[in-house]
Amino acid sequence: MVNWPNFISQCFNGLVLGALLALIASGLTIIYGTLGVLNLAHGAMFMLGGYAGWLTYSYTGSFIAAVTGGSLFVMIVGVLVERVIIRHFYDRPGEDQLLVTFGLGIVFVELVRFFFGSLSKTMPPPLPLAGITSLGFMLYPTYRLALLGIVAAALLTLYVVLYRTRIGMIVRAGIEDSTMVDSLGIDVYRVFMLVFGIGAMAAGFAGIVNAPVVSIAPDVGEMILVQTFVVVVIGGVGSFPGAILGGLIAGEIISITSMFNPGYAYVMLFVAMTFVLVWRPYGLLGTAGRE
Amino acid sequence: MKAAAEMLRQRPFLAEILTAIGLVAAPFVLPYLGFAPTTINRILIWGIFGLGFDILFGFTGLLSFGQSAFFGTGGMIAAYLLTVVDFNHVVPALVIGTIITAIVGYLVGLIALRRTGIYFAMITVAIAEVFFFVEFNPLSEYTGGENGLPGVPTPSIRLGFTTINFSTDWSLYIFIAFWFFVSVVIALRIVRSPVGMVLRAIRDNPLRAAAVGHSIHGYKLTAFVVAAAYAGFAGGLLGLMQGFMPPDAFMFDTSGQLVMQTAIGGAGTLFGPLLGATVWLYLQDFLQTTLHLGASWKLVLGLVFVLLVCFLRRGLIGGIEDLYALVITIKKNYELVEKAPETVTTAAEEQKTSEAVIARERVVTTMSAPHRATDRRSDTILEAKAVTKRYGGLVANNDINFSVSHGERRGIIGPNGAGKTTFFRMLTCEVPPTSGQIIFEGRDITGLTVTDVCQLGLTKSYQINQLFNRLTVRDNLTIAAIAERRGKFRLDLFRSLPSIPRLTEQVEHTLELINLTAWIDTPVAQLPYGEKRRLEVGLALATGPQLLLLDEPLAGMSPGERVETVALLKSISRGRTMIIIDHDMDSLFELVESVTVLQEGRVLVEGTPDEIKGNAKVQEAYLGGVHGVLAAE
Question: What burial class does residue B490 get, using C-beta atoms within 10 Å of its C-beta: 0-12 exposed, 13-18 middle, 19+ buried?
Fold first, then answer.
């Protein structure tokens, strides 16, 4: 029999995980949509965010400083990676882009392992958000509840940036046709650099705010990357709403399946992905031709 | 590359012989270079794993990050049979593991190949992760979960009178090297077969591969299954070599390592993965044991890999080939400088071209009309009935009725945006019409695929060149010709290309027809534009079409090239039905017998070139309402 309080709390966990995946997938999908590069180092950006946040926290003791510092750090890393390496790969075959970002991902993971070791690090939630809150019908960790709000706020910010600002309009135009944007007299390379930075920051931010929930280790990014791929396949490449829908679906599938048997979480995720591929090959909210 | 290909043509079994020599020599040479026997065995296993992967990635262009699923599956099945089941026959266990893995690969391929490009990469990653979790949890009873399966016996072969045991490292080397050799021979056969040629075509230009009549999904699935089988076999060998089947064979790292080794060595060469594995495993040993770097060996290898991808695009083998080509060019240039400037060449070339013209005339007269006699001028070969195409609110083609008779040469003209190309795309079934019907040779082809229609004898040359750029002119035409010779899908994995009846003749005839014989072994990427344009027509021609559609065959040509191409088109039109779109009306009117004028998606008028030239409506369509002025002049 299903244990209802447990079920509801798992649904909540799914929501939190889903929101987190949505944020990471948005980063991946806007980078892919604009630059045409599938960033296989995206999981490493998530991991780097976690470590940068943890390091800032251990020096300052401030959660806010950790989030700000960590996000900025990952953004700078993203911008540098685009400027120094990815820029030289726009004219090369898609496989080369996959190879180089895959290699970069390994370099980042191994660098972190080199400096901080393989053991996992923990970061406590900020004090006002520690403990447990009663929602009337169930008890739930306060930070996880707050995390839902934090990630929702981040997604909202990303939405506002993408849909309500000039730069966002350029990015969305770039997703449709970056050659056209270029010929309109907009320096598309500067936009690419910025988008790669923002996309990386989305993953890095998720890595920091998730650190108090799941401890960080050099290889946390790998698992997240795989889940993000499923999210993007379900939602549709290049679609911001698709990333959110896909994220929530994937989060719920993982959490609810885990309640019965964690071993099948991936199998169910995979089944969902297969259904989408058969039923709507371009993803739930995707458009044909974006690959 | 070219030199290597030439060498292989002269000595057909060179690669096999060199492999055999290398395998025999390795145990005598490599230990002096610091290779431990287990490292050598491991390199060979990764080499086998990589042979299949290279067929998938290097030859077909499908980058999978999920090969660990098959490596693990094959290994686990063989290990399970040999340990838990007590099935005491090593080689049959390996074969069973390979077959089951191939079946699993087929099922996975059905899902993963629904998409291409990055989607394919992402889906393979996700599927491999599923295998990893299934191995660790639901199936841990059978696979040992995180402990793996220990106690895999070393191989032994019973010969009735005696039993050979491969229990030491070097005897295992003999066992593995034997299987490596077998794997290489099979892979080389596949790569040299018609299927291998189609796989390269898919890598270079999947759209055109389908358009010349190959069922590309079937061939991609074939490559995927072959790669899975190789992975499964290599996985089985891993268990035998270690005496233990490790669960980490299923990990994402395994797939990643395979991809990196292949990229380091050079994809599309079959031996790239072996070279990559050699570098990788040697460096791993060296960094760990000699330099005592501990776990950071992976950091160094990661950096090496990133640098290699940045600066050596085609891997080590590609780098060696480029270097070789550079040396050859320098040598040639040097020789040229040494010799006195020659004026003889131009004379020789002139003679060559005139010879080519004579040869072409001869071919044109001898080459029989494809498939059937064409004296049935009266009956219709192609008919479009009320064909309409809408893109959202835009009506690209509106209620077009159109029919062409056998042997006819028809031109289609119309201002830009009249819907000519859309109309062609519907006739060749690249896009389905929104409504209406297309009848070819009395058969309703509406809704068929471009591949099926090409197999029926209707194909098109494209407005923008759609060639197989990394392949030679000969290979390009071969790809088109084998579609006609062997149908849209056939699994002749072990057949050699020359054994296909009349293939060489067909390719050579087409070559002479389009006057590219002098360029036969040139990679397409190096051809001048006019030659590329002729090859574009040649690709369509080599499929042996009864009805040939030409979309702006003269586009972008110089006046001289136009004259030459018009003559070429005239010569190939003998015994064929052709429909030609072009903007160069003088050339077009010279070529065709009748003309259809499209305007704003509708048929404006039809008639002979002379009728069209004098038609006021046509003049108005092109010049926009000033025909009164023109008529007055």
Answer: middle
- Chain A residues close to B259, C-beta within 8 Å: 99, 102
The C-alpha of A174 sits at a distance from chain B's nearest C-alpha, in angstroms, of 18
Q: Do A100 and B309 touch (CB under 8 A)?
A: yes
Q: What is the total residue count of chain A?
A: 291
What is the pLDDT, as a whole number, of residue B394? 86
Provide CB contacts within 8 A for A183, sequence distance 6+.
Answer: none
Residue ranges matching CATH 3.40.50.300 in chain B = 380-632
**Does domain B2-323 correspond to CATH entry 1.10.3470?**
yes
Looking at residue B514, its amino acid is I
The per-residue pLDDT of chain B, averaged, comes to 85
**Beta-carbon separation of B133 and A114 below 8 A:** no
Domain with CATH 1.10.3470 in chain B: 2-323
In the numeric block, which tokens belong to residue B3?
A: 């030199």
Q: Which of A100, A265, A291 sits opposite B117 (nearest CB)?
A: A291
* Nearest residue in B to A223, CA atom: B129
The residues, any chain, with a CB within 8 Å of residue B562's CB and separated by 6 or more, are B554, B584, B587
Residue to substitute from B107, B119, B258, interface A, most A β-carbons within 10 A = B119
Summarised one tens digit per residue, pLDDT across range B92-126 is 999 999 999 999 999 999 989 988 888 898 889 88
A273 reaches B (C-beta below 8 A): yes
Question: Cβ contacts (< 8 Å) between B65 and chain A: which residues?
Answer: 98, 102
Return the structure tokens found at B189.
């056969």
Model-level pTM greater than 0.80?
yes
For residue B343, the model assigns a pLDDT of 46
Q: Do B114 and A277 lie within an 8 Å CB cutoff?
A: yes
Q: Which range is least confidently modeled, A210-219, B228-237, B365-374, B544-553?
A: B365-374
The two structure tokens encoding residue A106: 């390994």
Q: Judge contact between A81 and A211, C-beta under 8 A.
A: no
- Cβ-nearest to A113 among B115, B123, B295: B295
Residue B123 to residue A114, Cβ atoms within 8 A: no
Quote the minimal CA–CA distance from A79 to chain B in Å: 18
Contact state of A263 with B299 under an 8 Å Cβ cutoff: no
Residues of A in contact with B132 (CB under 8 A): 266
Q: Which of B539, B508, B484, B535 is nearest to B360 (CA)?
A: B508
Q: Do A291 and B118 touch (CB under 8 A)?
A: yes
Q: Burial letters for A85-102: b for 16+ Cβ neighbours within 10 Å, e otherwise?
A: bbeebeeeebbbbbbbbb
Contacts of B15 (CB under 8 A, 6+ apart): B8, B184, B188
The pLDDT mean for chain A works out to: 88
Q: What ipTM goes with this model?
A: 0.89
- How close A130 gets to chain B, by Cα (Å)? 33
Q: Over chain A (291 residues), what is each successive 10-residue block's mean pLDDT?
A: 76 91 93 87 95 93 92 96 92 88 94 90 83 78 88 91 85 78 82 91 94 89 90 88 93 90 83 86 74 50
Q: Where are the beta strands (DSSP E) in A199-266?
A: none
Contacts of A232 in chain B (CB under 8 A): 122
Furthest CA-CA distance within chain A: 63
- The pLDDT of residue A120 is 87
Whether residue A73 contacts residue A48, with contact meaning beta carbons closer than 8 Å, is answered with yes
Residue B417 phi, psi dihedral angles, 5° rounding: 85, 10
Token pair 């960094």 is found at: B287
- Between CA B285 and CA B448 the distance in angstroms is 56
Q: Which residue of B has its CA nearest to A92?
A: B313
CATH topology of domain B380-632: Rossmann fold (3.40.50)
- From B57, B116, B302, residue closest to A291, measured CB to CB: B116
Phi, psi of B571, deg, nearest 5: -65, -35
